[in-house]
Amino acid sequence: MSEKVAIVTGSNKGIGLAIVKGLCKRFEGVVYLTSRDETRGRQAVEELEKDGLKPLYHQLDVADKSSVVKFGDYVKKKYGGIDILINNAGVAPEMPLKNNYEDSKSVIDINYGGLLTVEEVLFPLLRNNARVVNVSSDCGHLSNVRNEEWIKKFSNKNFTRSDINDFVDWYLESVKKGTFKNSDLADNGSVASYRVSKVAVSALTIIQQKELESRGIIVNSMHPGLVSTDMTMGIGFFSIDDAAETPIYLALDSPSTIKGAYVWYDKTVLDWYDYKADYYFKKNSVYFQLSKNIFKNFISIRHIGVGILSIALIIAFTKIL
Ligand SMILES: NC(=O)c1ccc[n+]([C@@H]2O[C@H](COP(=O)([O-])OP(=O)(O)OC[C@H]3O[C@@H](n4cnc5c(N)ncnc54)[C@H](OP(=O)(O)O)[C@@H]3O)[C@@H](O)[C@H]2O)c1
After folding, report:
1. Interior CA angle at 92 toward 72 and 112, to 5°?
2. Which atom of ligand 1 is nearest to the CA of 225?
3. What is the CATH superfamily name and number for domain 5-281?
4. How many angstroms is it from 231 CA to the middle of ligand 1?
5. Over its length of 321 residues, how does the chain's per-residue pLDDT go in tens digits?
6. What CA–CA distance (Å, rounded) separates 202 from 136?
7. Per the UniProt record, which residue ranges are transmembrane (predicted)?
8. Residues 262, 263, 266, CA angle at the centre, nearest 5°?
9. Residues 162-196: b if buried by 16+ CB within 10 A, e if exposed
């Protein structure tokens, strides 16, 4: 029987690294740590090796088709197929409130475009009964969308791939023309490009499930919680190991009835179509966590430096968000 293969994109650090760590401990097969930067990726492998884990490594930049094709060719030749694919690679906007076109395009090209490229090149390698986890966000739930036309389109359960692409293009065009309205998205349009990219990821997941259903393949998208990583400048309710639990559950343990679903960090399945729900990202949750950090750090005089750093961070966040 051929060796089983698990792949995690963007896994040189953060949640992806913790997913690799967890899979190395439990998955009966090879686990690929992949990264866009080879040096950072190989360093991450070395760190895991110090803990006795044995991930394999390959370069993979999801925003560079030639890199994805190279990796796909390698996997096909060496293993013939993929059993677990965790699409974790992602970026947040540099200026969350400014909606600059180049920044927005870059976020969408990586978070959504990268998934489309992976789908085109690597999905044909998925074995029957494989599992795919698309790491989305609370920004990916439909309740992030406030524009009535798009709510109507997506809450109709028959939306298509081209509807998702039109949604992404609509956003980018409106930013380019300067016609984007903050009221078209939740929380007064904060982190707009990220919300659009992740709504697209979760919507695409539903379509991918329908397309792969006949081969027993399961595809879900999930929100990992607000997690302390570089992406959040260390602010979060959860550690990367906490955050890796649900993607690992979806890759290895969840019942086959959970498919094409939108899954919360506590493993509950939410109704993605419930556009009136309260699952969307709120920037106040970041302020709340920052305040908690400051309180925690100030009660200990030894951590006064961290306290000062936290204040600097809260000022920076107030300016950015
Ligand atoms: N942290 C949170 O609170 C949170 C909440 C909701 C959702 N998420 C999602 O969780 C996932 C992981 O985020 P994180 O918090 O762990 O962030 P992170 O620490 O910044 O890690 C992101 C990873 O993605 C990689 N990456 C970026 N662009 C890539 C590309 N083009 N090709 C391949 N890899 C690429 C990064 O590589 P480099 O080191 O080269 O940059 C890094 O390894 C993302 O999809 C994010 O949107 C995070």
Report:
1. 40
2. 5
3. NAD(P)-binding Rossmann-like Domain (3.40.50.720)
4. 7
5. 689 999 999 999 999 999 999 999 999 999 999 999 999 999 999 999 999 999 999 999 999 999 999 999 999 999 999 999 999 999 999 987 778 999 999 999 999 999 999 999 999 999 999 999 999 999 999 999 999 999 999 999 999 999 999 999 999 999 999 999 999 999 999 999 999 999 999 999 999 999 999 999 999 999 999 999 999 999 999 999 999 999 999 999 999 999 999 999 999 999 999 999 999 999 887 776 777 766 666 665 556 666 666 666 666 655 544
6. 6
7. 299-318
8. 160
9. eebeebbebbbebbeeeebeeebbbbebbbbbbbb
* Numbers of helices and strands, H then E, in the chain: 11, 8
> Which residues are CB-contacts of 143 (< 8 A; sequence separation ≥ 6)?
186, 274, 275, 276, 277, 278, 279, 280
Give pTM, 2 decimals. Answer: 0.93
By most ligand atoms within 8 Å of CB, the mutation choice from 9, 12, 20, 36 for ligand 1 is 36
List the chain domain ranges.
5-281, 283-321
Q: Can you tell me the distance from the alpha carbon of 94 to that of 24, in angstroms, rounded to the nearest whole number?
A: 32
Tell me the DSSP string of 79-97: TS-EEEEEE------SSTT
Q: Spell out the long-range contacts of 12-15 with Cβ–Cβ below 8 A and sequence spacing 24 or more.
A: 12/37, 12/40, 12/41, 12/43, 12/44, 13/40, 13/44, 13/229, 13/230, 14/227, 14/229, 14/230, 14/231, 14/240, 15/88, 15/135, 15/224, 15/227, 15/229, 15/240, 15/243, 15/244, 15/247
Q: Is 209 in the pocket of ligand 1 (CB under 6 A)?
A: no
In this structure, what token pair is assigned to residue 196? Answer: 């659009």
**Which pair of tokens denotes residue 90?**
């992602």
The residue to mutate among 231, 235, 285, having the most atoms of ligand 1 within 8 angstroms of its beta carbon, is 231
As a whole number of Å, the CA-based R_g of the chain is 19
